């Protein structure tokens, strides 16, 4: 089979088209403009477009219902508010293209379409579903159900999110075969206010209770299992002469292994301050379940490695702390993540992709679609 290398100028032109359309999560009209460009590209490839509830688009290519399709999962939203381009314009140097949303993940969307185009209408058995969601950056509230339904039906999920950043030695040639799950956690402590000078004994300090509680909260971590629990924000008190009646702690909680999310939820919910006059109200929910590195995903990774070998490079695998929509598909079908453009600076002012390394990634996605 002849190997496909994409045209770098065409990739770049399409990325500039998408990146010029700002698309912050929650701005349905702006995201709709990006979706409209994608719909045009899908139409050129003979794809069928469906708009699902919440604004997710489902593009189907050669889906015949005879076999399970492959799923490509991407998002059209970015973390950047409307108007960012004025301060942080698109620009490039010899190797890099900078701008809001280029790395996370408009280059991934462009690469996905170029890989589909390279198939020349010869779709894999069962076809390909490309699902593009509008709310990944805010935890996918409207799209999670659609993602899970497609993952149930799919043979495998390929996620062209950014690979690990340039700070890592592996950035050019690594895929993500595991991601931590994320739990949203905060606790509000309620004590009793009193004059701190005249009658402090009549109060009960929520700030003192919080200080006592922090060590026990962080002890819920199990680093050996990949579970981290950190108190990352604290807010409490109203004035220097008032026994503080309220204090709020916000946590960053991540888990690697299935079952750890339930343990952490249970143990945090049971934590109460030593001062029984202070009440604890926990706010706990699973944002994304862990994306476990399991046998099915490793078999899929082996296919990607073989495809890379044919293209002349060696692929490695990494597990990362950050979650993506791959966390929703991984429990339901084998999933490979990090198939997007190399670069760095997701959600940061130096966000960019590496133009010189991008074509290789698109070639890999194409070769993988042909193999599966
Ligand atoms: Zn992303």
Automatic annotation (TrEMBL):
UniProt key word Repeat: no
Domain Peptidase M20 dimerisation: 177-271
Claim: ATP-binding is one of the keywords in the record: no
Pfam families listed in its UniProt record: M20_dimer, Peptidase_M20
InterPro entries xrefs: Bact_exopeptidase_dim_dom, Pept_M20_glutamate_carboxypep, Peptidase_M20, Peptidase_M20_dimer, Peptidase_M20A
Catalytic residues in the record: 77, 136
Highest taxon above the source species: Bacteria
Entry keyword set: Hydrolase, Metal-binding
GO molecular function: hydrolase activity; metal ion binding
UniProt-recorded name of the protein: M20 family peptidase
Organism of derivation: Deinococcus radiophilus
């Amino acid at each position: 089979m002849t190997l496909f290398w994409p045209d770098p100028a065409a990739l770049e032109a399409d990325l500039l088209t998408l990146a010029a359309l700002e698309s912050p999560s929650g701005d349905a009209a702006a995201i709709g403009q990006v979706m409209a460009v994608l719909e045009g590209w899908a139409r050129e490839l003979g794809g069928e477009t469906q708009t699902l509830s919440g604004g997710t688009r489902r593009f189907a290519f050669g889906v015949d219902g005879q076999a399970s399709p492959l799923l490509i999962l991407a998002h059209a939203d970015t973390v950047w508010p409307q108007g960012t381009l004025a301060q942080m314009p698109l620009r490039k140097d010899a190797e890099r293209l900078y701008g809001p949303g280029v790395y996370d993940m408009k280059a991934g969307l462009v690469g996905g379409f170029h890989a589909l185009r390279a198939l020349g209408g010869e779709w894999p058995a069962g076809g390909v579903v490309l699902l593009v969601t509008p709310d990944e950056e805010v935890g996918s509230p409207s799209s999670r159900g659609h993602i899970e339904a497609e993952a149930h039906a799919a043979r495998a999920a390929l996620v062209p999110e950014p690979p690990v950043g340039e700070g890592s030695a592996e950035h050019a040639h690594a895929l993500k075969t595991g991601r931590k799950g994320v739990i949203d956690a905060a606790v509000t402590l309620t004590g009793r206010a009193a004059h701190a000078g005249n009658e402090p004994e009549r109060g009960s300090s929520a700030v003192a209770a919080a200080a006592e509680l922090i060590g026990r909260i962080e002890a819920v971590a199990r680093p050996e299992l990949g579970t981290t629990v950190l108190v990352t924000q604290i807010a409490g008190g109203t004035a220097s002469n008032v026994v503080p009646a309220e204090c709020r702690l916000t946590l960053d909680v991540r888990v690697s292994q299935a079952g750890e999310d339930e343990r952490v939820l249970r143990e945090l919910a049971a934590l109460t301050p030593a001062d029984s006059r202070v009440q604890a109200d926990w706010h706990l929910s699973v944002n994304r379940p862990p994306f476990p590195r399991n046998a099915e995903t490793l078999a899929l990774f082996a296919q990607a490695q073989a495809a890379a070998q044919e293209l002349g490079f060696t692929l490695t695998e990494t597990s990362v702390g950050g979650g993506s929509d791959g966390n929703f598909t991984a429990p339901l079908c084998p999933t490979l993540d990090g198939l997007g453009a190399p670069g760095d600076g997701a959600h940061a002012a130096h966000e960019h992709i590496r133009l010189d390394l991008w074509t290789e990634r698109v070639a890999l996605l194409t070769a993988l679609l042909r193999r599966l």
